[in-house]
Amino acid sequence: MLNNRPFRPRRSCMAVPGSSDKMIKKAQGLPADQIFLDLEDSVAPIAKPAARATIVEALNHGDWTGKTRVVRVNDADTVWAHEDVLEIVRGAGANLDCIMLPKVEKVAHIHWLDILLTQVEREQGLPEGGIGIEAQIEGPAGLSEIEEIATATARTETLIFGPGDFMAAMKMPALTIGAAGSSGFDPFDTVLMTIAMTARKHGLQAIDGPYALIRDTDGYRAASERAAAYGFDGKWVLHPGQLDTANEVFAPTQEDYDKAELILEAYAHYTSEAGGGRGAVMLGDEMIDEASRKLAVPTAERGRVFGMARTTRFEPGA
User: Fold this and answer.
1) Binding-site residue ranges
2) Closest CA to 35 of 92, 121, 100
3) Which end of the chain is more exposed for a tag (fewer CB within 10 A), N or C?
């Protein structure tokens, strides 16, 4: 099943505590593709009810131009989750793109949120199915049901890797969220590939979670490049200093974008009658064919989404 949700850029997904009016206001002026206002881990239990009201006010009256607007509620098994969804959607559903559900350990969690969203959308006269779902995979139970989770509802837009809780659930000998450790191998390889493969299979986006060493710019870049190498679409940002790196790593370089467009243009020409109807040709020093075209499509599409301008053009016979 391929998902037909609207495409929303998510190179940089910035986490903002829903209890901090100051940080919420600052986030509106930052170059993040997505802002998610948090009601879960970054908000103390005693502050959660007030944070809901703060988030509703911010969604309704803040300037979120060009940003995907998301609220992370508490996980489905908590005492807060139900009221989180009710208050946020009743108060600001018209100004909300997605609900992020953490700690999705079984498909029933997605079914619960899907049904509740439908009920509140009907109650409030909102477009049914309009609010998307972002599902966080944060433990071995969720990973083992990822196929069912990904296909539980057409609302789902992203699968998100939550490294902190995953590391804890697996009893990994680590104390820093998102850092692979110094053991000489990457324990997240299988997890990242599984999430990426499932997302691609069903037309979803794959998003990597946080890197908690906010001053370690080299470490954040390495973690971002690792996720990008698996085909992930973006990564969480915990500090404004991580934004530029995420936006850079998860967008094509100018050279790659130009090459992708050249491949598509050249292949379209050479496979046409005017180009001789050939299936495999040389583009510079490289042979291109149908497989090359398929490889070029995602890079070209990403470049167009991010408004990149071409600096080269294909010239037959050149």
Assistant:
1) 72, 138, 165
2) 100
3) C
pLDDT averaged over every residue in the chain? 91
Q: Which two tokens stand for residue 163?
A: 């490294």
Residue among 77, 141, 143 at smallest CA distance from 113: 77
**Is pTM beyond 0.85 here?**
yes
Annotated binding site for Mg(2+): 138, 165
Could you identify the residue written with the tokens 């296909």?
A: 151
Binding site for substrate: which residues?
Answer: 72, 138
What does the pLDDT look like over 259-283, one tens digit per residue?
888 889 888 888 888 878 887 887 8
What does the pLDDT read at residue 156? 97
Q: Residue 268 and residue 289: Cα distance in Å, rounded?
A: 10
Structural domains of the chain ordered from first start: 12-249 (3.20.20.60), 254-305 (no CATH)
Burial class (CB in 10 A: 0-12, 13-18, 19+), 17: buried
* Angle in degrees, 0-180, between the axes of helices 290-305 and 254-270, rounded to the nearest 10: 130
Owner of token pair 């167009």: 304
User: Can you tell me the distance from the alpha carbon of 210 to that of 208, in angstroms, rounded to the nearest whole number?
Assistant: 7
Q: How far is CA 144 from CA 75, 119, 141, 267, 288, in A?
A: 18, 29, 5, 41, 38
For 66-104, give one letter per residue: b (16+ CB within 10 A) or e. Answer: ebbbbbbbbbbebebbebbbebbbebbbeebbbbbbbbb
